[in-house]
Design goal:
The protein has helices at about 5-10, 30-35, 40-50, 65-70, 110-120; strands at about 20, 60-65, 75-85, 90-100. It is of the alpha+beta class. Bound molecules: S-adenosylmethionine.
Length: about 120
């Protein structure tokens, strides 16, 4: 089922306490990873559906590309570095974006998340 329809029709019908995790195809380097990949307009449309039509709390993870940051500019988010190894090994940046309704804990046992929490609270 198409992801956008799936979110509007199926996910919105799930229990209100459902947490939705979206891990869309990467924005950059996508042609190297997928056969039939999302084009920039697809990412834009997806961002509109997630932010405008999804009625359950959600988080999204993406590569930290400026276009993605801009598509989700009004939402709380944090970026972190990681090592990719799917095609070749290199350091990259990823971003987690959070829906406005999502309650985010004040502390975390994971250092990289604990470090990001104060900035999340500031932008809330
Ligand atoms: C970042 S990965 C998500 C991986 C997933 N979280 C997991 O643990 O398996 C993005 C996924 O989107 C899929 N994908 C890429 N292009 C797609 C397309 N046009 N339509 C549907 N899925 C696509 C890829 O095959 C890949 O599994």
């Amino acid at each position: 089922m198409d992801a956008e329809l799936f979110m509007e029709q199926r996910v919105n019908a799930l229990a209100p306490e459902t947490l939705v995790y979206c891990d869309p195809p990467y924005f950059a380097q996508a042609h190297r990873l997928y056969l039939n990949t999302y084009l920039p307009d697809d990412h834009t449309r997806l961002a509109r559906v997630i932010q405008g039509k999804l009625r359950r709390p959600w988080l999204v993870s993406y590569d930290g590309h400026p276009t993605i940051i801009s598509l989700y500019r009004k939402r709380r988010k944090f970026r972190y570095s990681l090592q990719y190894s799917a095609v070749r090994t290199y350091a990259g940046s990823e971003v987690f974006v959070f829906s406005d309704s999502l309650l985010i804990p004040g502390t975390s046992a994971l250092p990289c998340i604990a470090k990001a929490l104060p900035s999340l609270r500031r932008s809330a």
